[in-house]
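tool_call predict_complex ligand=FE2/S2 (inorganic) cluster
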Amino acid sequence: MAPIAISPDPTPAPAVSPSATHSLSSVTTTYDDTLRFYLNGTRVTIDNIDPEITLLEYLRGIGLTGTKLGCAEGGCGACTVVVSQYNPTTKKIYHASVNACLAPLVSVDGKHVITVEGIGNTKRPHPAQERIAKGNGSQCGFCTPGIVMSLYALLRNNPDAPSEHEIEEAFDGNLCRCTGYRPILDAAQTFSNKAGCGKATSNGGGGCCMEKNGGEGGGCCKNGFKDDQPIKRFTPPGFIEYNPDTELIFPPALRKHEFKPLAFGNKRKKWYRPVTMEQLLEIKSVYPSAKIIGGSTETQIEIKFKAMQYSASVFVGDIPELRQYSFKDDHLEIGGNVVLTDLEAIVQEAAKHYGPEKGQVFT
Ligand code: FES
Ligand code: FES
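tool_result ok
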């Protein structure tokens, strides 16, 4: 579906009704209205935030047009950027590939946004950019920045080399209309721990560029390795070596970032970003119809294509309590905003924790 423009209501109603305004301002009076984050390694502070723009609109508006607008509804991946953040669920830094067309700007406070411009350029390409280009993984190039950033996120999260399967999964949010996926996957598989030369078995290859006898072995460049040897990333001849140590670091200042409650907006729309459950409950108690937003994957589509208006939105993605989980004696407790990627790891951990009997799948 093509994006459509929705013309603003000429006489907008106040974002929040007068009675609720009074109550809301009483609970949000100490909230901050400044957004602080890092963009490609540089600190950014924004005071006058337009509450209606997405991360993609902001990036393209400041000239970072490498990130593309395709479907505007989270379906094509052309707008993929990486948002690095401390993950309160896993207690580690996580590099999330994010659809910037859906992400509200408020969601990047305290995080590091990395766009395709931040990882390399034509003179000094990132290995992911170089291998997609040299591997003929790009024709018109419209999808390519998004594909590169999905691959980049995977590499950042798996510095010891991702598996063939992880590489395939990394692209499940990216569409390409003209190249075809084979060369894209072949190029990406050069980073895998198994098929480092781009002849992945999952892709129909034999697993090695040196193989003979129609893929039946004999001559594989890795045959000399013993099982107890650590897997070493293989760099195909003619390609830049991928060295995780040279990547953009997670800004040390962000490790100490103080997540303050935020409130900003105009007459048409207001954003609130509570950082504790107590603050969230306070807002909901004085303004029950405020729209709760986690990933914004549904709400942004409603706003763009169904002309829905949410005058007061509450971003709950930075409330650590909602990202926790714990194993109880007879049940598993999972926060309402635990992301699906983490949930996958949690249920695997839970299956081990509870054992084969309790951990089995209901049928
Ligand atoms: Fe298609 Fe964002 S533009 S997913
Ligand atoms: Fe044209 Fe992918 S290279 S859409």
